[in-house]
Write a structure and sequence with these properties.
Elements lengths: L3 H6 L8 H5 L10 E2 L12 E2 L16 E4 L5 E4 L6 H7 E5 L5 H10 L2 H6 L4 H22 L4 E7 L2 E10 L4 E8 L8 H16 L3 E6 L4 H7 L3 E5 L3 E6 L4
Parallel strand pairs: 8-9
Antiparallel strand pairs: 1-8, 2-5, 3-4, 5-6, 6-7, 7-8, 9-11, 10-11
C-alpha cells in the first residue's frame, strides 16, 4: 500500500515529465471516476434535478471529501447539507459547451490543489503541475468516454462543479464529480450521489467508482452502501448495488 507522498511520486521521477508519461488513461492527484449514458437534452438546456428518495439513515458529512476515481477525475463530497428539497430548488445541470473551458480548468485545479499543498508544494508548482494534468485529463476523457454525459453543476444558476458520468449496458460509472471549494459542505455532492443511486435502482444496475485509498471519501461511500470490490496499491474499486 502506498502512502500519499509515495503515490504522487509514482507519476514520474521528475513531475515536469508527467505530460509525456501520462498519455491516455492517467492523471494527477485525482483518479478516473464514474460514467453515465448520454441524456437527451439540448446543449444549452438547464434541467432541474428531481428530489432523491431519502436514505433510511441520513448522515451529514463533517469534512470535504475528495473522491478520486481513476487518475483523471476527483470527486468531492461535503457536509452542512441542504435538505433534498433545497437542493432540488437550487441545483441544476447543463451540458458542457466549448465556452466552458475556462471554468472547467478552474474546477479541475481548485478541486485538486489541497493534497499537493499538504505535501508542501508551492503555488507556482501546483499551478503548473495541475495545468499539465488538466490537458492529459481532457484528452483522456475525450478519447475514452465518447458516450459519457459531461455537465456543469449549477448552484442558483452559477457554476459550482462538474459531473461526468457514463451509463453502460451493465453499470453506471462516475468519471468525474468535482466541486469548487465555496460549494462544498452544503450537501451538493451527497444530493448528486443519491440521485445516481436512485437512477441505478430504477435501471437495476450497479453504481461503480474508483477511489484513492487515502481519500476520506472512502468512509462516506461505505456509509452510503458502497463496498470495496478490489484494490491496488493506490486505489479501491467500489460498488453500490440496488437491493433486490
Amino acid at each position: 500500500m502506498l502512502g500519499k507522498r509515495a503515490y504522487y511520486r509514482t507519476f514520474a521521477p521528475d513531475w515536469r515529465q508527467l505530460a509525456r508519461m501520462v498519455g491516455v488513461g492517467t492523471g494527477s492527484v485525482s483518479d478516473r471516476v464514474l460514467t453515465h449514458a448520454t441524456l437527451e437534452i439540448a446543449k444549452t438546456e438547464t434541467r432541474s434535478l428531481p428530489v432523491p428518495t431519502p436514505s433510511r439513515s441520513k448522515r451529514n458529512w463533517d469534512d470535504a471529501l475528495p473522491v478520486c476515481v481513476s487518475k483523471t477525475g476527483v470527486v468531492r463530497l461535503e457536509s452542512h447539507a441542504m435538505n433534498e428539497a433545497d437542493c432540488a430548488q437550487t441545483i441544476s445541470l447543463r451540458p458542457v459547451t466549448p465556452g466552458d473551458e475556462e471554468i472547467l480548468l478552474e474546477i479541475y485545479k481548485r478541486s485538486r490543489g489541497d493534497d499537493l499543498r499538504g505535501l508542501g508544494w508551492t503555488e507556482d508548482r501546483i499551478n503548473e503541475f495541475l495545468g499539465m494534468q488538466y490537458d492529459a485529463h481532457k484528452h483522456f476523457l475525450e478519447s475514452e468516454y465518447q458516450r459519457a454525459t459531461d455537465e456543469v453543476i449549477l448552484c442558483e444558476g452559477e457554476p459550482a462543479g462538474r459531473l461526468f458520468v457514463e451509463r453502460r449496458e451493465h453499470e453506471i460509472r462516475v468519471i468525474d464529480l468535482a466541486l469548487l471549494p465555496e460549494h462544498r459542505n452544503n450537501g451538493i455532492g451527497e444530493f448528486l450521489i443519491r440521485r445516481l443511486q436512485n437512477e441505478a435502482r430504477l435501471e437495476v444496475k450497479p453504481l461503480r467508482l474508483q477511489v484513492i485509498r487515502f481519500n476520506r471519501a472512502v468512509n462516506f461511500f461505505e456509509r452510503s452502501g458502497f463496498v470495496r470490490t478490489s484494490e491496488t496499491g493506490t486505489h479501491f474499486q467500489m460498488e453500490w448495488v440496488p437491493s433486490a
